[in-house]
Amino acid sequence: MSTDRLLVHVLRGPAASPAPAARRGPRRPHRVCFPQATDAWMRRASVACSSASDGEAGGMTYKDAGVDIDAGAELVRRIRKMAPGIGGFGGHYIIGDKCYVGGTDGVGTKLKLAFETGVHDTIGIDLVAMCVNDIVTSGARPLFFQDYYATSKLDVDLAEKVIKGIVDGCEQSDCVLLGGETAEMPGFYAEGEYDLSGSAVGVVKVDKLIDGKNIVEGDILIGLPSSGIHSNGFSLVRRVLEKSELSLSDQLPINDGITSSQVLLVKFSWHRLSSMLSRLVLEIISKGGVKGLAHITGGGFTENIPRVFPPGLGAKIITGSWEVPPVFKWLQQVGNIDDAEMWRTFNMGIRMVLVVSREAADRIIEDNHGSNPAYPIGEVIQGKGVCYA
C-alpha cells in the first residue's frame, strides 16, 4: 500500500455507505486510528522511557558517550529558580500585542564530522534550522538570525564556506542574517577546528501564541518526518561508528553506494528538509487546531514531547505508525543500544511533533502527503512522560 493510501486508510478506517443526497447536516468528524506496528524492531520498543538506559546489558548510551541528559535537566531546574519561565523551546518577550520569540543553539559534535570530511558548506544550514525550528514551535515567524563563529586562527576561506551555509539557511527559512561575531582565540581550539552557535528571533501576535495550555487528554500527536539523524545524538553516533570500524569513506550496509559521511553529514543532513519545515509548520498553524509543538532534537521523544504539556498529561506513542530511517536501526544494532536510549537520544525519523485536536488531525493528514507527509503517531493521555506501544 502506498504512503498516501496508507494515510487515508489510517485516517478514515473502513468505508461507510454514502448518505442519501437529501440528508444534510453537520459533517461527522473522522476518528483517527493508528496502524499496528509491523516492524519487529519497532515492536520491541513497547516500554516506558522516563529514564535513560543504565547500560547493564553492555549497550552504548548517550551518557557513556559523554552527554548526560539528566545533568542538563538538573541545570535547567536550577536556572528556573533564578529566571522563572524558561524551559520551552523558545523564550517569550511581549511588547503590546506582539510576542517576540528567541532561540539559541549549536550543532554539537556534528562539527567533528565537518572537520574530518572537509565539508563545511552545509553545517551553517543545520545551525539555522536548529534555532529557527525551535522558535516556530511557538507559532512565531522567523525575523532574523545572528551567528557566533570562534576559532584559534582564522582561516578566511573555510569561514566563508561556513557563513555561506548560514546565509543559505536564512534564505530557506525566510529570515535575514542580521549580524554575528567572529572570534579569533589563539590556542583555544585545535588547529583547523572552530565552534559555531547562533540565535534566531521571530514574532507572533499574543493571541496566536502557541503555548500548550489548551492541550487536553485525547488530542492527537502528528509527526512530520525527518530525513535522518540531523544534529542531535552525534556524540553517540561517533562512538557507534568507531565501534563498527568503518571509516567515513566506507559504505554503510544500509544503502548501496552511500558512504558513512554522506549518510551522517550530507545525505541525511537537516538542510535537506529545513527549507520547508518552518514554512510548512507555519502554514499548518495558520489553518487552526494546533495546540502545541515539540522540536525533536537532543533528548529525543522522551524529553522533548512532555515539555509542551500542561501538568498531569503525558504522551502515548504508537510505534510502527511511521517509517523509521534505516540508519537508526543500524545504530541500534551495531551499538547494542537499548530501546529506551534510542527514544531518548534520537529523533527516530520524526523532526517535529504537533499536538492537535482530533478534528484538526483529520485535515492535517489529508492536506499533507506525498513529499511532505504527516503521520498520526500517538495521543495525549493522563499521566506523565512518554510511553510506547
UniProtKB/TrEMBL annotation:
Keyword field contains Transferase: no
Any one GO molecular-function label of the UniProt entry: phosphoribosylformylglycinamidine cyclo-ligase activity
GO biological process: purine nucleotide biosynthetic process
EC number: 6.3.3.1
Domain PurM-like C-terminal: 217-385
SUPFAM superfamilies recorded: PurM C-terminal domain-like (SSF56042), PurM N-terminal domain-like (SSF55326)
Pathway: Purine metabolism; IMP biosynthesis via de novo pathway; 5-amino-1-(5-phospho-D-ribosyl)imidazole from N(2)-formyl-N(1)-(5-phospho-D-ribosyl)glycinamide: step 2/2
Keyword Ligase found: yes
Keywords noted in UniProt: ATP-binding, Cytoplasm, Ligase, Nucleotide-binding, Purine biosynthesis
Cell compartment(s), UniProt: Cytoplasm
Catalysed reactions, semicolon-separated: 2-formamido-N(1)-(5-O-phospho-beta-D-ribosyl)acetamidine + ATP = 5-amino-1-(5-phospho-beta-D-ribosyl)imidazole + ADP + phosphate + H(+)
Stored InterPro entries: PurM-like_C_dom, PurM-like_C_sf, PurM-like_N, PurM-like_N_sf, PurM_cligase
Domain PurM-like N-terminal: 96-204
Superkingdom of the source species: Eukaryota
One Pfam family hit: AIRS
Gene Ontology CC terms: cytoplasm
NCBIfam families hit by this protein: purM
Family the entry assigns: Belongs to the AIR synthase family.
HAMAP family per record: AIRS (MF_00741)
Name of the protein described by the UniProt record: Phosphoribosylformylglycinamidine cyclo-ligase
